[in-house]
Description:
By secondary structure, the chain is mainly α. It has a domain at 14-83. The chain has 3 helices and no strands.
Amino acid sequence: MTPEVRETDPEGIDYGWIMQVTFIVTIVIGAPVVAALSLFTTLPTWSDRALFAVRVGAFVWLVTMVTVYAYARKYRENQAQKADPDEGSEQAENPDEKSDRDDSETTGEQTDVSAEQN
């Protein structure tokens, strides 16, 4: 049996992408940072080492999360708008233009139709 593949088309920011990238970058960057900083700290017991790793790792995770979120807001949202530039502008422009045209066309047509019937 083939597993079901689900796809999403998020509007705005893709939080799934943010979580995945944050996880990978935190591990790739966080492990060397914790190891490098632990060289300059006295950590005599395993509990001290674990607490140090959690504290530094939490800071690395927080900085990574904010950075990835800012990147997603700035660049990935702009890429989505560039891919479909008319989507937002059509919605803002068409209702006004369409209503002006409909009013003038409807008024003109009603006048013409009533004049023809007489």
